[in-house]
Sequence to fold (344 residues):
Amino acid sequence: MARILVLMGGDAPEREISLKSGRAVAKAVARNGHDVWAVDISFRHKNSMPPANIPPPDPEAILTCSPMTLPYWLTALKPDVVFPILHGGYGEDGTLQAMLELFQVRYASPPPLACQLAMNKIQFKRLLIAEGIPTPEFCVVDGDEFERDPELALDKVEHAIGYPCVVKPSSQGSTIGASVVNHPDRKALREALAEAFHYDPEALIERKIIGKEITVAVLGSKGKAKALPVIEIVPKTGDFFDFKTKYTPGMADHRIPPSISDDAQQRAKEIAVKVHNLLGCRTVTRTDMMVDSDENIFVLELNAIPGMTEVSLVPDAAKTSGISFEALMEILLEEALQTPLRGW
Ligand SMILES: Nc1ncnc2c1ncn2[C@@H]1O[C@H](COP(=O)(O)OP(=O)(O)O)[C@@H](O)[C@H]1O
Ligand SMILES: [Mg+2]
Fold:
């Protein structure tokens, strides 16, 4: 039996989904017989120091801490493993993971560098290109560059990528700040860039891939990393997989097996494992990809802390290969327990 601290919530736009993922994880880990404390971490809980008497483990009682008071909670709870179930922001970009390494606490997520590379879509794509892994053609526009001479920045995008294109802030998840510009339209492109700069000083403009959207979860690390079954995501409305469609149960269908050939599924799995290992990931990640009409595969991004609600993609892929939600949690816990702590 292990002492587990499940951290959830956070301060990123995905806070609500993280609370749902965190609650589901806390309950499943408790069902496996471990002592679980569920803690909502957020700057909104300013002075939330641990009480003198730590409450007994209870996955349903959500305690509160702030990033500032987290070290005190770690000292008070002495968890064997932290589950950072935080989507976006400091919980997924490696900051929290680095803090846990500094305090020599084991955690069930990829390490800081892997998280940072996954969160920065531009650096991520540069790495893919260096390794010959296919990703949609792209160009980068800097916020300063856009402010100085928007017309020149638009010329650059039209020349390098053209239409249809997808404009995204470099470091955001859940389609936040992203737009599709389907037809030649400088005004729409300008608005899309301005929208992306609300969220990040750098924008990424990609060629839009017309085709099917798939995602592949990878479990484990290095030689033991294994892809779970490929899922095709079929949105019920529109052609852009947005925040609402992604997280509203029933708004998107998970198609397993996907409507692509066995050969394409095999290639997608190999690519996902390669990307997972290239970043130095462990535990579980999820790589989002597009498949065009010739079954060419393009990597969009890797999610270092994928959604873990009952309706999420990773638990669904695991279930298809005979791994229950509880068993999945136990695999993550085992891997975290076996990861050596860094000495300083
Ligand atoms: N180049 C692209 N071509 C076609 N669709 C895209 C492209 N980039 C993103 N999308 C769509 O936008 C969604 C979100 O993009 P993604 O890169 O996965 O970022 P995030 O999930 O972090 O917001 C994808 O799931 C896909 O539906
Ligand atoms: Mg995505």
User: Anything to note?
Assistant: Residues 288, 300-301 surround magnesium ion (ligand 2) (CB under 6 Å). The first strand starts at residue 3 and ends at 9. The mean pLDDT is 95.
